[in-house]
Write a structure and sequence with these properties.
about 260 residues
Length: about 260
């Protein structure tokens, strides 16, 4: 099996993402800004965007954090982060983390960025289960973007908030078959809680990762279990996959 995540410690012969993963601009990625090492856009659908039942199954657990949302007239640093994992029957789990920091942002923008960066890290078309506690992100990709595209990227109530990021996410998702799953935040979903930990840490430390980095999920879990949390957690793979409708692509997605 060819892995689908990149690392600096594993050769390019068994990965399917670009170099060290994706980077986003300091203000969050906008159309055409999510890039991989070497400058290649990872969100271009390209001729290989079809990802059928034989495509690798990848799980992404993502979260966002924004500090100081309660204040006005000041910057609100925030972050988007997540855990990307793939299971191989011979080698077990292959995991990577990512985090993107923004010095002045919102929770909603960081939720969308988590999708752009997470999906953008996959070099080839995959089956992806994307789990987030953001209703804004999940409902947006399951429902809203389809109506917006049909109306020329407009909505009845006025301008679409964060339109630049929504369209970038649509391009990132178009390469894959994605199931968008919502989970309740802070409800002991272990991997979502880990993603929250990554996002909060990146926001507080005011720094993201340089692309994908080796995951610390197992270390974090062991430390939590020493404190008698998640002691019954079983780290088992799941093949359950129910992809949502593909986002609009081509002329429909590019209309102004």
């Amino acid at each position: 099996m060819r892995g689908v995540l990149a690392s600096r410690s594993r050769g390019a012969s068994n990965v399917a993402v670009e170099g060290a993963g994706t980077r986003a601009s300091a203000r969050g990625p906008s159309a055409g800004q999510t890039q991989a090492a070497g400058g290649a856009l990872t969100t271009d659908p390209g001729p290989g965007r079809e990802s059928g039942t034989d495509a690798p199954l990848v799980h992404i657990f993502a979260d966002e954090s924004c500090l100081g949302n309660q204040f006005e007239n000041r910057s609100n640093p925030g972050a988007a982060a997540g855990l990307i994992e793939q299971f191989d029957e011979r080698r077990g789990w292959y995991r990577r983390d990512f985090a993107h920091f923004d010095p002045d942002t919102t929770n909603n923008r960081m939720a969308i960025v988590s999708g752009i960066v997470g999906l953008g890290a996959l070099r080839r078309g995959c089956r992806v289960v994307f789990t987030s506690d953001s209703q804004y992100l999940v409902r947006g990709m399951k429902e809203w973007v389809h109506g917006w595209a049909r109306r020329g990227w407009r909505r009845k109530g006025g301008p679409i908030e964060n339109l630049d990021l929504w369209r970038e996410l649509v391009r990132a998702a178009a390469r894959h078959r994605v199931e968008w799953r919502w989970t309740r935040g802070h409800a002991d979903d272990v991997k979502n809680t880990y993603a929250d930990h990554l996002a909060v840490t990146a926001a507080r430390e005011r720094r993201g990762t340089d692309g994908l980095v080796p995951s610390r999920f197992e270390t974090w879990l062991a430390e939590a279990q020493e404190k008698e949390r998640y002691v019954g957690f079983l780290d088992l793979p799941s093949d359950a996959f129910a992809p949502d409708l593909r986002p609009p692509v081509g002329d429909e997605a590019e209309r102004d």
